[in-house]
Amino acid sequence: MIRVLFVCTGNICRSPTAEAVLRRHLHDKGLGERVGVDSAGTGGWHVGDAPSALAQQVAHRKGYDMSGLKARQIDRADFDRFDLIVALDRGHLAALERLRRAESHASLALLRSYASEPPMEVPDPYYGGRQDYEYSLVLIEDAMPGLLTALADWPS
Q1: What is the largest CA-CA distance in the chain?
Q2: I need a surface site. Which of 70, 75, 110, 111 has the fewest CB within 10 A?
Q3: Rounded to an integer, what distance in angstroms lies between the CA atom of residue 136 and that of residue 138?
Q4: Does residue 8 carry a catalytic annotation?
Q5: Which of 8, 78, 89, 112 is catalytic?
Q6: Separation of alpha carbons 37 and 15, rounded Å
Q7: Is there a catalytic annotation at residue 142?
């Protein structure tokens, strides 16, 4: 099984949305048993909280289920538990690079590196409105076909 972890700031907006989107795509393609998916935040402000209400509403309207997800903070052991850790913006990627030990086997990537075109980051909708959450979802969805292709080609 390939294990994928999405990481954003507080694990209540972008990374749980990416987790829900990838889960549904995997389910739709019959790959749910081949790929494990989780999400975490670089900070611990929201540990134990559900994704933001607006993130859940926007995702639900597009058929993504975020129920049951709870925020958690990434820790060093995640670099051994996961094969691919996917950052939602460059700041998260830099934080992951600082946290990762040299002997860790996890690969790091920026989600939008799998996208069809720029921008390279998914902006944080936390202080915005519905349109900000909708835009983040569009950017996340746009990167999924490329990520799925990369996962299909992942070495066994």
Answers
A1: 42
A2: 75
A3: 5
A4: yes
A5: 8
A6: 11
A7: no
Edge-first strand order for the sheet with 107-110 is: 35-41, 2-8, 84-87, 107-110
List the chain domain ranges.
Answer: 2-152
Q: Sign (positive/negative) of CA torsion 95, 98, 101, 104?
A: positive
Is position 90 annotated as part of the catalytic site?
A: no
Indicate which residue of 78, 98, 124, 142 is catalytic.
124
Instruction: Provide the pLDDT confidence category of residue 128 given band limits of 50, 70 and 90.
Output: very high
Q: Are 137 and 54 in contact (CB under 8 A)?
A: no
Question: Catalytic residue among 14, 23, 72, 112, which?
Answer: 14
* Confidence (pTM): 0.97
pLDDT tens for each residue of 16-44: 999 999 999 999 999 889 999 999 999 99
Q: What is the CATH number of domain 2-152?
A: 3.40.50.2300
Interval 77-110: pLDDT, tens: 999 999 999 999 999 999 999 999 988 989 999 9
- CB neighbours (10 Å) of residue 16? 28
Nearest 10 degrees: CA dihedral of 105, 109, 114, 117?
-160
Who's near 47: CB < 8 A, 6+ residues apart?
41, 71, 72, 73
